[in-house]
Records
---
Amino acid sequence: MLIVEDSEDDALLLLREMRKGGIAPYHELVDSEDRLSYALRRGKWDIVITDHNMPGFSSFRVLELTKKYCKDLPVIIVSGTIGEGVAVTAMKAGAQDYIMKDNLSRLIPAIDREVREGFMRQAKRVAENALEHMAYHDSLTDLVNRREFERRLVQALEDTHKTGRHHVLLYLDLDQFKIINDTCGHVAGDYLLKQVAALLSLQIRSDDTLARLGGDEFGVLLRGCDAVHAHKVAEKLCEEVHEFRFVWQNKPFSVSLSIGMVVINENYNSAGELLSHADLACYAAKDRGRNNVQLYETDDSDMQQRQRDMNWTSRIQQALQNNSFCLWQQEMVALQPEANDGYRTEFLVRLNEGDDIVPPGAFIPAAERFNLMTRVDRKVIELAFDYLDRTGLGRESTGTFFINLSGSSFNEPELFLYISQLAERYKLIPERICFEITETSAIANLNATQRFINSAKRRGFKFALDDFGAGMSSFSYLKALPVDYLKIDGGFVRNLLDDPIDLSIVDACNRIGHSAGLKTVAEFVENDEVRARLVELGLDYAQGYGISMPRPLE
C-alpha cells in the first residue's frame, strides 16, 4: 500500500483502522510529488490511499501520476475537507472511491473491493497485451510477423513518397533449412530458426525491423538507408550466418543465406510489389550460387523472366482447379516396313484460356521452376488415360501412345502407384502406353529414374528417352536406362542435310540405339528430303511438321 499523506498522525490513524479490520499491509508513506513519482516507478503497489489537500499537492495530481506510471492501480481518497462536488470530479478523474476521515467504516470494504478489482483489471490488461503481442509477432521466434512487417513497409513507403527519403527491404531465405528439417526433424528446424533469429537481431539497428515472414524466410526493413550501406549490412548478415555452426545431437550443419534487396523509392506503390520484387531478387541470389546478395533491377533479364514465371504460377494453379488443360496429339510414321506395326502418336499438353490455346513452352518453364510440374503431369496422365478409355484405344492389341513426364515427377514416390491405379480403373493395357522423359532430366535424377522405369516396366509400360544426343554423355547412360525408344534430338535432325556433323550424330545415335535393341525416332522432321535421308540411315520412325501437324485430340 502506498499512502500519500502529509500528516504522519493521520497515516497512523489509517493503519490502526486497517489493522482493526484485519489488514496489515506493507506500506510506504510519501508526502511530495517527487517522492510519489519515485515510489510509483520503483514499486509494485496494490493500492494508493491519498489525502486530498497537501501543501502544493492534491489528490488530482496523485491521480495523474498514478495513471502515468501504474495505469490499473486503484486510488482511494481519504480526506477530512473534501466536498461532494470535488469528490465527484475526483471520481471522474479516475479515483475509485472517497472516504471522509471522520467516518472510516467504509475503508476496509473499499480496500478489499478495489484491490480485488485492481487485480482483475491488471490481469485483463496483461491478457490484452499478450493477445496484441501475438497478433503482431511470430510465436516461434518472437520477431515481428508478416502482417506487422507489411504494415511497417507501407509506412516506410508513405514516408518515401512524402519526404523522398529512401529505405531498403531485404528478403532473406535460409538455404539449407529443408535438409536439417528432413534429416533431424521439425524440432531441430524450429531450434535453428530461433538461433538464426537471435543472430540476425544482433546485426541490425534498433529502429530497423527484423521479421519472420514464414517458414525459413525473414525480412529486414532498413530505415533511412541507401543501397550502398544496405548492401554492406546484407553481406554482413550472410557472413554471420555462414560462419554460424548449427549442432544437433552432436551433428554439425552449415547454413547460409540468400538475400534479395530492394530500394524503396517513389516508383513503388504497394508493399506487395516490394515483397514480390525482393522475393524475385532472393531467388536470383539462389540461382547464382546462394550465400550472396542480389539487388533487384528492372532491366535484369533473369528477373524479368522470373517475374513472368511468377505471373504464370497463379494461371497454372487456376487452370488445374478449372480443368483448363487439354491434350493435342502429333502422330509418328514408320520409316521402315518392319517398323509398321501399329499406330503411334504423342500426347501434347495445351492450356485452354478462352479463345486462346497456349502452347507448353509458355507455361512449362514456370511450372518447373515453381514445383507445379508434378501436378501438371498428373493432369496430363488423367486426361490421356480417360481418352484411351473412352475411345477404347487403350485396350487394342496394337498402338503406342506417348505421354511426357517431367524429371521432378520421377522423384514423387506416389506417382507410380497413381499411374497403376488409374490404369486398373480404366482397364488399360500397359503396353499401349509409353512414357517419355528427356535425357537431361533422366540423368539429373538417375537413381530415381531407374527405380521408376524398372517398376513401371515390370507392369508392362514402355519408356522413351527424349531429346537424345543433347547431353555430353548420352551413350554411356544408355546402359543404365532400360528404355524402349530413343527419340533423337530434333536440333540434329533439322539440319542433317546441310551439316555433316549433325548427320553423323543422327547416324551414330541410330546405330547405338539399334545395338541396344531400341527403336529410334527422329524428331523435327520438316520435309520429304529429310524424311528420305532418315529412311536411308535406317531410323525406325519419324515425327515432325513434315509428317503430321499437332492437332486437338478430339
Note: The CA atoms of residues 364 and 373 lie 7 Å apart.
---
Amino acid sequence: MNTLERPNLTGVELLHNPVFNKGTSFTEKERDVFRLRGLLPPRVNSQEQQVARALESLRRKDSDLERYIFLMALQDRDEKLFYRLILDHLEELVPIIYTPTVGRACQEYGHIFRRPRGIFISLEDAGQVASLLCNWPYKDVRVIVVTDGERILGLGDLGADGMGIPVGKLSLYTACGGIDPTLCLPVTIDVGTNNEELLRDPLYIGRGHHRVCGPVYDTLINEFIEAIQGLFPHALIQFEDFGNRNAFRLLAEYRNKVCAFNDDIQGTAAVVMAGLHTAARLTRKSLAEQRYLFFGAGEAGTGIADLLVEEMKRGGLSEKAARGCCWFVDSKGLVVSSRHDLAEHKLRYAHHHPFVADPRSIIEAVQPAAIIGVSGQPGIFSENVLKRMGELNERPIIFALSNPTSKSECTAEAAYRCTAGRAIFASGSPFDPVVIDGQKFIPSQGNNVYIFPGIGLGIVASESRRVTDKMLLAAARTLAAEVTETDLAEGRIYPPLARIREVSLKIAVAVANEAYDQGLAAVPRPPNIASYIRAQVFEPQYTEYV
C-alpha cells in the first residue's frame, strides 16, 4: 500500500515533508540530486541510528505527556522514523500514543497544540463539506476515523480537543495493521461542547458554543457521509467516541448503507469476544454455560452482549436463551423489566427479576461467571465484589475495561489478590505484572488495538463494501486462536503486543475471506489471500530515491 514512491520536492520543502523526509539518512547522492547539500549535518546516519537517537531523547522526558508531545512532533517530521520507532518498541510506546496517555493529551489538547493533523469540520462548514475535504493532500483515502468528541474514552465531552483520538487510532492502523499512513484520514466534527471548562478556556481549539443536536446535527453528519462516498468511495469509516444518544442510531443508520463500523460498540465487542473465547479454555465451560454481568449499559456493553448473543446463536442457542445469559447494571442498578426508565438499547436485556441496586447484592442475585466493566466508574469492582466472584467461581472472569487507567473498575493487583490468583483478568489500559504467593501474573490488556487494525487491513485489501457481524466474529475467533498455552500460564488471555502485526495479518485474512464469501469484495479474490495482503503492508523502512 505504499502509494507514494519518489518525492518531487527539493531542499527545505523535502525536509519539511514527513512522508518523504529521511533527515540525516539521506545519502550523499540524494543530497546532491535533491539540493540538500549543506542543509543537513555532513554525516549520513542509518535509520537504526536515528531510532536510537529518538529513543534516547524520548526516554529523557519527565512525563508520559511530554513523551506524547515528542512522538507527535516526530510523526509530523518523519513518518517512517516515527513508525519504525513504534514498531521496534510496541509495548513501551503504544500506551504513549494511545491509551492511557492519549486521554490526558486530549484533556490538554488546546494547550499542547503544535501542528494540525486531519480535517476539522464545524457547523459553519455545512453545505461545503465536500470542498473542505478536497483540501486534504492525499486523494486515495481508505480509512477514516471520525469523532464528534462527545464521549472521549471515559473522560466525557472534550469537543474538538478529541481530535487526539482519531489521530491516535490511525497511528495504530499503520503501526499495528500496516496500512500506509497516506491512506488514513482523521476527522473531527465540531458541533460544540457542553464542557463548561473548555468553553471558558481561551486556548480551546473548537467553536465556543454548546453542543448542537437534532436535525442540524444529523444533516451535517449525512453531508459528511455523502461527501466521503463521492470523494473516497473505497474508504472504511470508523465512528469513534460518539455519545450513546448518537452512537447507536448512527451505526443503525449507516452500517448497511456504507462501509462503516463503530469501534466503541463493535471493535470492543470483538476484542472482548476473543477474551471470552480464551477464558473458556481456562474455565472449561462453553460460552452458553456461563452468565455474564455487564457493569455499564452503554454502547460498549450492549455491543459486546449483542456480538456474544450472535456467537451463542451460532453455537445452537436460541436468541432468547442467549440474551438470558447477559445481564446489565447501569447507573441506577440492575436492568430489569419492571423499570420504566430504560433506553431502547437496554430493553432487550431487561430480565424479569426484582430490582437490586448495590453491586455486591447484584453479584449475589445474578451469580455470574464473568463481570465485564465498561462503566467508567473507578473501583466499582470492590474488594467485596471480587472476593464474592472468587467464592462463586473456580476461575472468575474479571474484565475491567474502562479507559483510561484512572477509570478502571479495579486494578490487576486487586483482582488477583482478592481471588487468590485465580482470576482471569483483562483491563482496558495496561497494568504492571503482579506477584501473588510467588507466582507472577502478566495482566492482559483487552484493547481494541488487537482487533481494529486487522479488520481495517482486511477491509482495505478486499475493498469490502460493508463491515458485518460475521467479520467481527471471525476476527474474534482468530485473535483467540493466537493465544498460546504459554500465554495462558502467564495469565495472558491475549497474545503479547509484540506480535500484533502478525496477529493483525491473520485477522485481515479472516475478514477478507468473509468479504469474499459474502460477496462484498470489490476486487477479484486472489489465489493466496495471505500473500496478497502481506504484499500491501506498509513497512517503515527508508528507501533510496536515486
Note: The chain has two domains: 46-258, 264-546.
---
Amino acid sequence: MREFLFVGYSLSSLISIFCLYLILRQRPGEGQKSVQTLTSFICILMTGYWLSLSASSLEGMVIAQKVIYAGGCYVYFYMLLFYLNFCRIRIPRIVSELLQAFSFGMLIVAFTFDHHKLLYRSYSLGEVNGVPILEKEYGIAHHAYIAMMACYCVAFIVLAVHFYRNNKKGKRRTQSLILLLVALCPTASYILQKTVSKIDLVPFGLCVSLVLIIYLIYVERIYDVTGLAKDYVFSSMDDTALIVLDPEMRYRGSNDLAKQLFPELETAEDGGKLQWISGRLYRIAMKGSREYEADGKIYEPKLKPVQNMGRDVGSVIWLTDVTAQREHLKLEEKYQRKLEHDVREKTKHIENMQQKIVLGIADIVENRDTSTGGHIRRTSDVVRILIKAIWADKQLGLTDEFCAAIVRTAPMHDLGKIAVEDRILRKPGKYTPEEYEIMKTHTTKGAQIVYKVLHGVSDEKTLKIACNIAKYHHEKWNGQGYPEQLKGEEIPLEARIMAIADVYDALVSERCYKEAMSFDQAYDIITESMGSHFDPSLEKYFIQCRSQLEEYYTYANKKQPKAAEV
C-alpha cells in the first residue's frame, strides 16, 4: 500500500506542478491570478502529503502535517475567488478580508500545533497497512476549520445552482457543473477518507480538481477576456506610446512604441526612478502637455492618473501620434484662409457692381433733374469727408462697417426723384404748395425703391442705412421736416449726416433758379441751423471739415479730387 500511495502521491505532485506551469503561461488576469495562487497552494499541499508518506519519525510527520496545512488553509478560499470570478459576482471587501484573516489564523495555529492543544489535543505516530499516519484527537480549532470548509461547500453549491438556473445555454451549464466538481472533489475525498479509510485520499481529489481546471481553461476557454483585451490593446497600440508609473514616479512598464521612441526603456529596470531612466520622459511627466517630435512625427503627451477604489495608485504617460491631425489642421487653416480671401474678393466685386448700379441709377435721376447737376456725386463726397472726421474722433463709437455703408449708400438719397413727374422735377422755378407736396414724396418713394434694389443682394444693416438715408434726409432736428416730422435722435444718425451734406451742397452750388452762395454765407447758415435743422452734436465735425469742404468745392468744377478713404 505504501508503494502504491508513493507512486500516486508522486504522480499527483507532478500533475500539480505541470498544471501550475500551464496556468502560468496564461496572461495574468483576475481569474488567472486566483487560479495561479490556488494551484501554488495545491502544490504545497501535495508536497506535504508526499513528505508524510516518507516520514519515519514523529518529528518528520509533524513537519509534513504543517506543510499540508500551509497549503490547505488557503485552497478553499482561492477556489471561492475563482468561482466568483467565473460567475461574475463580487463579494464585499470586508467579507474577503475576514475569510483571509481566518485562513491566516488557521495557518498560525497549524504551524504551532506542537506547542498548544487548539488543533490537536493529543497526537502520536501510527501506521495503517504499512503507511505512516498521525493519530490525533481533534481540538476546537480543527472543528472550526471543518465548519468553515463546510460553509465553503455550501457556498459552492448555492452558486452553482444559481448560475445553472440563470444560464439556459447547455455549454455554460456544463461549465458550472464542472466548476462545482472542482470544489467538491477534495471534499468528497476527505469524507471518503474519514468514513472508509484512514489513509489520506485528498491528494487524488485535488489532482482531479486541477485536471478539471486545466480542461476549463484550455478546452472550454474560460479566459479572463477583459484582462486579455486590456493586454492586447496595450501592446498593439501603434499610434500611442504608453509608459506606466507608480505613485513615486518609478517605471513599471511600457509598450513597444514607447520603447521605439525612448530606447533607454529597453534596458530600464522595473521600479527604477524615471528621472534616472529618461530625462526626456521625466520632463514630459513634470511639465504636462507639450508636443514631442520624433522620427518626423508629432506626439501629444498627457499624464493620466490610475485609480483603484478612489485612491491614486500610479499614472500613465500617453503620447498620441497627432501628426495626421496637425497636417489636417494646417490644410484646413490654409483652405480657410483661401476661402476667406475668395469671399472678400467676391464680396468686393459684388459691392463694386452694386456701387456702379447705384451710381448709374443716380445718374439717370440727375439727368432728369436739370436743376441739380452733379449734386449726387458731390453730396456723396461731402458725406465721405464728414464721416472720416466723425470716425477719427471715436466719440460716437461708429464702426468701420457703419461708416463704409453710409459712404456707399449716400448716392441713393435722392433715388425717389425717379418717381416724380417731369413737369415738377424739371421745373426751373419755385414750386407751388401742391407741387412741393408732390416733390416731398420722393423720400418715401426713394426708400421703397432702395429696398427693392438692395433687398436680397445686400446685408440687412446696409439695407437699413440706405433706406433711412433716402427716407429721412429731409427730417429736421426740431421736428419741422418731412416725411414723418421726426425730432432729435428719433432721426437716424445716417440721415442727420446726410442732411448736412445735402443742404451744404444746395447752398454752395449754382442752380438754374439761384446763384451759388459764398462759403462764408453757407457756413453761417449751417452753423446757425445747428439745434434747429441739424444735429448740434455734429457741429464740431462740420467746423473741423470747413477748410477741406471749401477746398473741395473750389476745384470741383476743374478737377474732381480723389475721395478720402474711410
Note: The chain is about 60% helix and 10% strand.
